[in-house]
Write a structure and sequence with these properties.
The longest helix is centred in the first third of the chain and has 43 residues, at 11-53. Helix 13 packs across helix 14 (425-442). The protein folds into four domains: 2-13 and 171-264, no CATH class; 29-169, PAS domain (Beta-Lactamase, 2-Layer Sandwich), CATH 3.30.450; 270-364, PAS domain (Beta-Lactamase); 379-529, 2-Layer Sandwich (Alpha-Beta Plaits), CATH 3.30.70. It has 16 helices and 19 strands. The mean pLDDT is 82. A hairpin with a 5-residue loop joins strand 8 and strand 9 (281-284). It is of the alpha+beta class.
């Protein structure tokens, strides 16, 4: 309403307007627009730096750009956004990448780099740079120079320096300011005519630009201001349209990145749950619903710490920030690896919390299966020699610690070689399989039955007195001597040693083997126990 009242007022007010409006443009509008341009340029630089940071590797020696991919992305961004120059500094201020190769290796010795940027603060300033035209003539251009620090775990690792050439925008703003001021001055010389002219050629176009700005502020980036001519209003409309196009392009890029993120989140097999800074759940992907057996609404309503129905456990996991080392839990009949942590920005302010859930049930089952296979004899299903050695060592140490006895049996199938030669190896294998089956049924669940090698077997009887060991061995021998395998009689010889009679594990095994040898000397099909 204020602009229309000026147009309808008297010549005196028009003269006053010629002073007020240019002053407003010079001291308020132009600085504000310049500040806005600087801020927008700074935000573009931040987005570019954030995007490029993904192409940087951080190790113990500092940051390193992924050479080919980084250079290709720099060229692409320079073409898309019209960068004047870009640099990458390490934590000491040394240039490790620059669009000007001659600068690589130089150090930034400015105080603001080490006192401001190195502390994680973004720094932007407008400077005048010199460059040569295509004809080789020196030119002065306006450049927005923005330093964007690279902070990882609140540690300064380096910084990007992004240069945007704003000479065109600055010149256009200066030209618009000058031309607008001249229009207002000339309007005082032809009040009546200018009221009509300005109303038609200034107020309405500006209103369209204002309306377009309002629509843009509401998210409508497709609206364009009609460019009616080549005057300053047309230039402003054209500049505005260009700005809208650039914003639309940037918005489209962000939307593509968002779509990529959504694709990853929706297609991920891992469950992902995140919160905002207040602790409210803001993201639940479908995999999390499947793994937890809850709907998204239930997870949101229950809260982040109740995702596993154990608030204390989840809270402690978040406090430990177990994003690198997972915690394994069993929930909803699944074995889950839980990665949980709080997320902070470069200033240490809380952004939110997140949890990543991974179903490792099949992996754990496979591990158990492989472990069993590595400890099991393929023919008999008994424990193998490798597992026997481990169990003997463990049981011997336990018996020493708690001062109790355990027995060790070595069982040999009598005349097995002759049996193989006469009836064949397949028949011999059936004898061993049947013998192993009888061993499993005869000895206790706490006893360890193993295939010692060939036709020899071994048994560990924990926490058992020598007399009980002897009785168990004799009952087993009798049971074997009474059975038939495919109509054939089988007998075994058994040698026994006890922990309380043997100071070392080697001694224990040796004496059981000696006892077995004595049984064979006495005609086989018997049991002998070593006594010191």
């Amino acid at each position: 309403m204020l602009k229309y009242r000026f147009l309808r007022n008297s010549f005196l007010l028009s003269l006053l307007a010629t002073v007020i409006v240019p002053s407003y443009a010079i001291f308020i509008l132009f600085p504000n627009v310049t500040t806005l341009l600087l801020k927008q340029t700074e935000q573009s630089a931040i987005r570019i730096a954030t995007h490029l940071q993904r192409l940087i590797v951080v190790d113990g020696s500092g940051i390193h750009p992924l050479a080919a991919a980084f250079d290709e992305e720099i060229i692409k961004i320079s073409n898309d956004f019209g960068l004047f120059k870009s640099r990458l500094f390490d934590a000491r201020g040394k240039i490790i990448h620059s669009s000007d190769l001659s600068e690589i290796g130089q150090a930034n010795k400015h105080d603001y780099f080490h006192q401001v940027v190195a502390k994680g603060e973004i720094l932007s300033k407008t400077v005048i740079k010199e460059k040569n035209s295509m004809e080789g003539e020196p030119l002065s251009i306006s450049v927005v120079e923005t330093y964007v620090p690279i902070m990882i775990d609140n540690q300064f690792q380096g910084a990007f320096e992004i240069y945007f050439d704003i000479t065109v925008e600055t010149d256009n703003l200066n030209r618009i300011l000058f031309q607008g001021s001249m229009i207002m001055v000339l309007s005082s010389l032809a009040l009546t005519l200018m009221i009509l002219v300005v109303r038609r050629s200034v107020v309405r176009p500006i209103a369209r630009v204002s309306d377009a700005m309002s629509r843009m502020a509401q998210g409508d980036l497709d609206h364009r201001v009609p460019v009616a001519g080549h005057d300053e209003i047309g230039d402003m409309a054209q500049i505005f349209n260009q700005m809208c196009q650039q914003l639309k392009h940037a918005h489209s890029g962000l939307k593509q990145e968002r779509d990529k993120l959504n694709t990853i989140l929706l297609g991920a097999r891992e469950g992902i749950i995140s919160t905002d800074s207040t602790g409210g759940v803001v993201l639940v992907n479908p995999a999390a619903e499947v793994l937890l057996g809850k709907t998204q609404q239930q997870i949101v309503e229950d809260g982040f710490t109740h995702i596993l129905d154990d608030p204390e456990f989840v809270a402690s996991s978040v406090q430990r920030s177990s994003i690198d080392i997972p915690t394994t839990v069993v929930y909803n009949q699944k074995v889950l690896n839980i990665h949980a942590a709080t997320i902070q920005d470069s200033q240490g302010n809380l952004i939110g919390s997140m949890a990543l859930l991974r179903d490792v049930t099949a992996e754990k089952q496979l591990e158990e299966k492989l472990r069993n296979l590595s400890y099991t004899d393929a023919l008999t299903g008994l424990l193998n020699r490798r597992r026997l050695d481990e169990l003997l060592q463990s049981e011997f140490s336990r018996a020493d610690r708690y001062r109790h006895n355990f027995g060790f049996l070595i069982i040999d199938v009598d005349h097995f070689k002759r049996f193989n030669d006469q009836y064949g190896h397949d028949q011999g294998d059936r004898v061993l399989i049947h013998l192993a089956k009888v061993m499993k049924n005869h000895f206790r669940a706490v006893d360890s039955c193993c295939r010692y090698g060939g036709e020899e077997f071994a048994v560990i009887l924990p926490n058992t007195q020598p007399q009980q060991v002897m009785e168990a061995a004799e009952r087993f021998r009798q049971k074997i001597s009474q059975m038939e395998v495919d109509g054939l009689r089988v007998t075994v010889s058994i040698g026994i040693s006890n922990h309380q009679h043997c100071p070392t594990l080697d001694h224990l095994v040796k004496e059981a083997d000696n006892a077995l040898y004595k049984v064979k000397q006495q005609g086989r099909n018997g049991v002998h126990m070593f006594h010191p």
